[in-house]
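writing this on my phone so excuse typos. first protein, seq and then structure
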Amino acid sequence: MIKENQRVKTKVDKEGYLAGSIGVVVSLYSSGPACEVEIWGEDGYPEDVVTYLFEELEVVKE
């Protein structure tokens, strides 16, 4: 189950970001299994917020 503030890795290319991008879940949609993810650049800083389905994400184990 994906939760807010979890670190995730994307499984698909979307909106110019490649599969394998790292981000943090910033909000969950109440209407279905989707969320907004703040995508981080290689420099460790946020670049954009993109909507993903849960199936398009993998939780990063710390």
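second protein below, same order as before
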Amino acid sequence: MTPQPEIIIDVENVSKKFLLPQGEVTILEDIQLQAQEGEFIVIVGPSGAGKSTLLRMMNGLVIPSAGRILFRGKPTRGINMETAMVFQNFGLLPWLTVLQNVELGLENRVKELDRRRERAQKYIGKVGLDGYEEAYPRELSGGMKQRVGLARALAVEPTLLLMDEPFSSLDVLSSINLRNELLDIWSDRDNVVNTVVLVTHIIEEAVELADRIVILGSRPGRIAGNIRVNIPRPRQKRDPLFLEYVDEVFSLLA
């Protein structure tokens, strides 16, 4: 028998409440979700469904109000150093060069400067930014800035890559190119990173990328659906089967 892939992250009956001026608000309720090694999961839902909050709880930036999150079978405490986040707004420090921004995530992990630089250079190359090592963020397009953010996350060689609407602020062409490159990086088993959880509100993006789509309803966020996408890659948006999946996700959201 073929062994089952390892469960990398296990979200068990997780809820999250925030105290706001108008009182306590439940953002997420009774979330149960697992990601196996090698999976590409996309979480989709309307604004306010708690998608970003769920991703930050997986990373350890936000603590659940109830339930627990297990990483490789063990409860998480604080920031999970085996995960890395790519943010919607790039998160680059404007006074640092491309190389320095990518090295930043390695400072507490790789002590030797030469090794840090070598690894940073490696992942700058993987995202197609060779030659831009000494450029500053102000000199880059939006797509290039997001490539820097992706290189910084990949450079720490996380077990789990978390991505919060990483393409939403990009132009159409940059978004298409980066999605294709992300799939290339994820599918290359020579890379350390082979498990991804990505958040989006764009249904077509979810169907294009995901092995599995998790649909969140809102107020509070609950899992409204869990769909495995059985379409060979690369996927064509005009494929009738692709459109069937889009309709199915849309119906669950609606």
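Strands lie at 7-20, 23-36, 40-44, 66-71, 74-75, 83-86, 160-164, 196-200, 212-216, 223-228. thats all i got for now
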